[in-house]
Amino acid sequence: MRQKLQSLNLIKGIGIIMIIIVHNRHFIMQDMSGLRPIINFGQMGCQLFFFVSGFSLCYSWEHIIASNPSGQLIPLSFRFIVRRYLRLIPGFLIVMAINWILNILLIDHLDFLGFLMNREPLAIITNILFLHGLFPAYNNNVFPGGWYIGTAFLLYIIFPLLFCSFKKLNQLPSVCLTAIPLFLLGFNYFLLKHLSVSLGNEFYPSNNSFSYYLFTNQLPCFSLGILLYFYDKKGFCVKCPLVISIPAFIALTYLSIHLYLQPEHNYIYTFMPFIVGFAVFWLATTLIHIEKKRLSASKKFAKTYISRFLASCGQHSYGMYLVHSFICWYGLKTLRYFLTLNDKPYNDLLVYWLVFVPCVLIVYLLGLCMEKLLNQIDHRLRPSS
């Protein structure tokens, strides 16, 4: 498991860097910046996390089943969900409280915009319960980037049922497993199309809309991670030649970037998470293949500073996700304030790239501290395995 999780950590490391790439441009880059659209593609780092979550949660579920072989699905599912919640909620509450304080100090009294927080009681309650992914008015305005955790937790809730569906089909030829992600993709497309037609354009699944964030829209990508888990148990990753997995990853990555840069049309964002997830499917296949076979190239790469840093970022990605808003929203807003003190223009691309590496390092260090704190809390709160 450690070998495979090391590959998954690399993917999560890439994912959190992609998220920092897109969030770093909030206050620095101007609309006329030519690279803004391609930089915005960094938002697809969330799909890397959805995919890896689907894969890695299978280990957690198998562990619960092994510890309770005679347990029933509903009680075990409840235990699984509680464990997920207790892992996520402490850091979420800490960062939300800090944002509340910053809103009062900086926005209310100093008129210094950072992340404008919705402080309505119902907004706070739905976010604390991780149910804000069901409420358009509270989905992404209480916690910086909070849509992700709301969507992820809803996926966690349905994970046990989804896993059991894969396990039943796993008794058939492996190709039958692909029916689940494809069914979920088609179901989501018709669901969101029906909602947008019947309820109006506000439910059209455009990029960064509530429908785009909706858990059903991210579910096909999430299920691809579960699919690869079952495939890998049958040796798919080792058996799949690199001459297939690498070109597949490159082709699907190119397709996803190409579609992302095109004008929105024909409900394309009901397919985008799946396409990106399918690219990650082949990336994960490649990394697990290399790691399990211990190819010489993988040994050299594993020893590089970049690979070790990416893996460490992946290992501490939740802590980095929690704290990155303090740099990307408040820190870079402060920097822009000083850059524009005399109303002089500045080279936004140059500033963006100059501050990028320092921002990543600061977020990484803060994320390490947050993870250390959360691990201490986690040992006290969560039920023993």
Q: What's the β-strand tally?
A: 0
Low-confidence stretches: none
Radius of gyration: 21 Å
What is the H-and-E element order?
HHHHHHHHHHHHHHHH
Whole-number mean pLDDT: 90
% residues in beta strands = under 5%
As a percent range, the share of helical residues equals over 70%
What is the makeup of the main sheet? none
Our count of helices gives 16
- How far the N terminus sits from the C terminus, by CA atoms, comes to 17 Å
Structural class: mainly alpha
What general outline do the C-alpha atoms trace? globular
Question: What's the short story on this structure?
Answer:
This protein is mainly alpha-helical and 385 residues long. It has 16 helices and no strands. The longest helix is centred in the first third of the chain and has 36 residues, at 73-108.
Mind sketching the topology for me?
Elements: H1 2-23, H2 36-40, H3 45-67, H4 73-108, H5 121-128, H6 147-169, H7 179-199, H8 210-213, H9 215-233, H10 236-239, H11 242-261, H12 272-293, H13 296-302, H14 305-315, H15 317-339, H16 348-381
